[in-house]
Amino acid sequence: MTTSLDHIRNFSIIAHIDHGKSTLADRLIQSTGGLESREMVEQVLDSMDIERERGITIKAQTVRLTYKAKDGETYILNLMDTPGHVDFAYEVSRSLAACEGSLLVVDASQGVEAQTLANVYQAIDNHHEIVPILNKVDLPAADVDRVKEQIEEVIGIDASNAVAISAKTGLGIPDVLEAIVTRLPPPKGDAAAPLKAMLVDSWYDAYLGVVVLVRVVDGIMKKGQKIRMMEAGATYEIERMGVFTPKMTELAELGPGDIGFINASIKEVADTRVGDTITDERKPCAQALPGFRPTQPVVFCGLFPVDAADFEDLRTAVGKLRLNDASFTYEMETSAALGFGFRCGFLGLLHLEIVQERLEREFNLDLIATSPSVVYKILLRDGSILEMHNPVDMPDVTKIEEIEEPWIRATIMTPDDYLGSVLKLCQDKRGTQVDLSYAGTRALVVYDLPLNEVVFDFYDRLKSVSKGYASFDYHITDYVASDLVRLQILVNSEPVDALSMLVHRTRAEARGRAICEKLKDVIPPHMFQIPIQAAIGGKIVARETIRALRKDVTAKCYGGDATRKRKLLDKQKAGKKRMRQFGKVEIPQDAFIQVLKVES
Amino acid sequence: MSAGEPGFGVYIHWPFCASKCPYCDFNSHVRLTPIDQARYARALVAELTHDAARTPGRTVSSIFFGGGTPSLMEPETVATVLDAIGGLWSVDRNVEVSLEANPSSVDAARFTGYRAAGVNRVSLGVQALNDRDLKRLGRLHDVAEALDAIRLARATFPRMSFDMIYARPDQTVADWRAELKTAVDLAADHLSVYQLTIEEETRFADLHRAGKLIVPDMDAAADLWDATHDVLDAAGLRAYEISNHAAPGAECRHNLVYWRYGEYVGVGAGAHGRLALAEGRRATADEKNPEAWLRAVESRGHARVADDLLTFEEQGDEYLLMGLRLDEGIDLDRWEVISGRVLDPARLADLVHHGMVEVVIDENGRRRVRATPGGFVVLDAVVADLAA
Q1: Pseudo-torsion of CA A381, A385, A391, A394, nearest 10°?
Q2: Among A327, A542, A552, B217, which residue has the fewest nearby CB atoms (within 10 Å)?
């Protein structure tokens, strides 16, 4: 039995990181009885360890809540939880497409942030009804009126009916549930029409195989039904279907407006295309849904096993991870220093860090990540164009006519106290100011910036110069010709290819100096002195020296307790395994990510 | 000293102290109520009996009472244990029987009793020869008591040694040289000289973390190390081990059992042993809590919390760790047999190239790897390199 449309509400929650989205979702699940309190853990929907630890949402999640409203009727509320970070903006867009309304959560003590802005505009583009929610109103720093004013000024939506809540204490949660029912529109659809459903997401589950998240628009989806993926042209039979409550709960059918999952003996996630239209094989619908634009990786880096013998394990691991994360791409790469590995593409630096962490944790691998690079377009003198993902592939300079690099348009919101530092940072990163406006005490800055400066350390530095208050969102705009040079790093007089990078000529020397200084800190002293140099072409532009180890010996041996010493040695040996031998020098794997965080 | 046989040692741990020193992370416990020593002695004998059954036919070459503070043991307790060892194994005519003692007057009063029980070597925890530092190190004795204890020990026992700690807060090279020269004048033919290290879960570790205890940095520590070796070499007390200095022939035989990776039984709370049995080398460890240890021995005859067969790799690592601490180094042929592998020739060559180790043939025609003076001071890095 499917629920009638006017008793369904599909909504997503839009919020900046830390504004309380996951806590609000937890409260909604709890107060509608989705889970017993003993089953509740914090951030229920963030099922990955990394999500809970970092307090972020990476994968969009969905949960079906059953709510008895004040009008006495029982409603099905489908909540799509969405990631807040700019790297995962594409996840947001498909979640929004599956819903009719959004809750816009704004921290009443912080105000609107850049990512909120980007996501809320997407929601408006999707014709969403938007209910503003002011969270953390119990905090002393909360300023409800000011933030309402800001929502109206900056976003341009009516905030007079904003719901004031504290997700932490539970204050106002019943009002949120009522607002969802009374203020958000029910989905439209025709149960009698041929099946038309949107493929919202898919992932690989170790027990169930490929799980597909769908939003039914028209018709009824039934167990045993033969379905067709219209764009992919593949047909499958539905073996199992249901909803998340948030526990996986099987149902016999899904009707218009429903959001649920299906299993259909699909071998690989690659066979499922996000945004594809699912229809009935025997009675197909006439027209497919518009679909989504596929995502493009914008940041590339090499991932290599610390222990070369683990390459096959890494190959299996990237393959499996890709089943779950279609936005991540990989191809085999060889490096003189690092051996066999993969050149991988990511949506951003956070995505890179998360993929690396998942590979290490879920597949028990030790990895080295090389300097991230953007995709450069190199115009050669022979008229051809090379798309370069890896600075190691840079052709001889005499063959190059011109190098183009991607630029982004960045939207930054910051309290005006930090505006000066934020502008200086953008200027330092070769940025061009496009716009600057104010909403109360917050400034909205729009800048055009080269992406290669942003992947480097922009986000970390933005957080640091604004004490964490500035927020940031971006999209790629254009490729622009630029005076870029390849910076090489030499350790003990040998170039380390994995540390080479393309840098703007005006920044190369400072960057080289900063990297040498950083490496001096992260490479432990050896039994001999180690020179570290940065070079452009053949010219050394910076140099540091790591002094030789002078004393490193355990004074006291604990009677016959050789076990204790051996365990320390085991740790040292494990540490050494996490280092890479470059000539005679051992470089810790985190050196490769540390050099990206240098300030220059 | 020639590279002799490791021998067979017996270690007895006495886990009690009158107070806990702020730098010490050994298994030591302070008890306010009197210890029933007769009961502990029975338990030690029971555990020795248990181990003796596993190691028949051995001849004991050394016995060592460590702690804690073994000089809190009544001489009768020591005698009971020594008598039991004599009944359980055959004992070498020249057996070395060492006991660690605190140089306080109360402990020194028992020296004659220990000698009568069969102890022939004491090792005194002098640690410093100035009262300010003794206080800082949490020691209960002062310099005057230490001097008395040293004199009494030299008069009572055929052999004696004492411990010093350096790299103390604010210690200069000149101060240390002067203090060490005094120590040399007081010493017989053996001195143990340890660098103060900050161990986890000690009071010094807390102070260090809080920035209230500053210890010399790597360069200062290296300078102090150099001074130590200068002064003691000049006095004829060669460093036969990282922290142990002796005139030729005066080395502590019991510690040589460990460093030569020999066989030893360890009894008492928190004690460790290494047994060379038919099935392979076993690592034993005892329950650390004294009362729990006692109950376990009384109910089961032993208080083992670990009795593990070591893998080849573990044995190889242990021999490297222990053996390279000695200036005689390791017997490479024996190491290969024990570990079932060969040392990575490239790494070895690299270390030789950097002057950290040397490969020599000893008088018995065996290949030995030993650390050079330059390698000694960075031995942890050298061992990690060889073991990796």
Answers
A1: -30
A2: B217
Q: Do the Cβ atoms of B321 and A552 come within 8 Å? A: no
- Do A96 and A161 belong to one domain? yes
Which residue from A522, A597, A551 is spatially nearest to B382, judged by alpha carbons? A551
Residue A63's CB is within 10 A of a number of other CB atoms, namely: 23
CATH of the domain at B331: 1.10.10.10
Has this prediction a pTM greater than 0.80? no
Strands B59-67 and B90-101: parallel
Residues B240 and B106 in one domain: yes
Partner A contacted by B329 (CB < 8 A): no
- Tokens representing residue A229 in the block: 């993926």
Cβ proximity of B348 and B359 under 8 Å: yes
CATH number at residue B244: 3.20.20.70
| Rounded Cα gap, residues B156 and B150, in angstroms | 10
Whole-number Cα distances in Å, A25 to A139, B338, B372: 19, 60, 65
Please report, for the domain that includes residue A505, its CATH number. 3.30.70.2570
Asked if residue A50 is part of any domain, the answer here is yes
Query: Chain B residue closest to A526 (CA)?
Result: B381
Tell me the pLDDT tens digit for each residue of B125-182.
Answer: 999 999 999 999 999 999 999 999 999 999 999 999 999 999 999 899 999 999 999 9
Residue A262, both tokens: 């299906």
Contacts of B350 in chain A (CB under 8 A): 584
State how far the Cα of A85 lies from the Cα of A51, in Å rounded to an integer.
12
- Is A556 in the B-facing interface, judged by CB distances under 8 Å? yes
Contact criterion met (CB below 8 Å) for B198 and B159? no
Question: B319 is in which domain, residue-wise?
Answer: 312-388
Q: Within 10 Å of residue A454's Cβ, how many Cβ atoms?
A: 24
State the binding site of A for GTP: 18-23, 135-138
Q: Which B residues 17-56 touch A at CB under 8 Å?
A: 26
Mutate one of B351, B383, B386 to test the A interface: name it (highest A CB count within 10 A). Answer: B383
Q: Per the structure block, which two tokens stand in for A367?
A: 């990895």
The pLDDT score that the predictor gives to residue A62 is 83
For the segment B72-131, what is each residue's pLDDT rounded down to a tens digit? 999 999 999 999 999 999 999 999 999 999 999 888 899 999 999 999 999 999 999 999
The per-residue b/e assignment along A412-447, b for 16 or more CB within 10 angstroms, e otherwise, is bbbbeebbebbbebbeebbbeeeeeeebbebbbbbb
A561 Cβ under 8 Å from any chain B Cβ? yes
Contact A557 B322 (CB under 8 A): yes
Question: Which 3 state secondary structure label does DSSP give B116?
Answer: helix
Residues of A in contact with B259 (CB under 8 A): 557
Class of residue B318 by CB neighbours under 10 A (exposed 0-12, middle 13-18, buried 19+): buried
Q: What is the pLDDT of residues A139-193, one digit of tens each?
A: 998 999 999 998 998 888 899 999 999 988 989 999 999 999 999 999 999 999 9
Residue A585 belongs to domain spanning? 486-599
| Residue at which a domain ends, from A252, A280, A308 | A280
Please indicate if any CB of chain A lies within 8 Å of the CB of B97. no
What share of chain B in percent tops pLDDT 70? 99
Tell me if ipTM is over 0.95: no
Number of domains making up chain B: 2
Contact B106, B73 (CB under 8 A): no
- Which residue in B328, B323, B256 sits closest to B3, CA to CA? B328
**Each residue's pLDDT tens digit, A557-577:** 666 788 888 888 988 888 777
CB-CB neighbors (< 8 A) of A570 in chain B:
317
With a cut of 70, which residues of chain A have pLDDT below it? 1-2, 17-18, 34-60, 83-91, 270, 292-295, 324, 557-559, 578, 593, 596-600
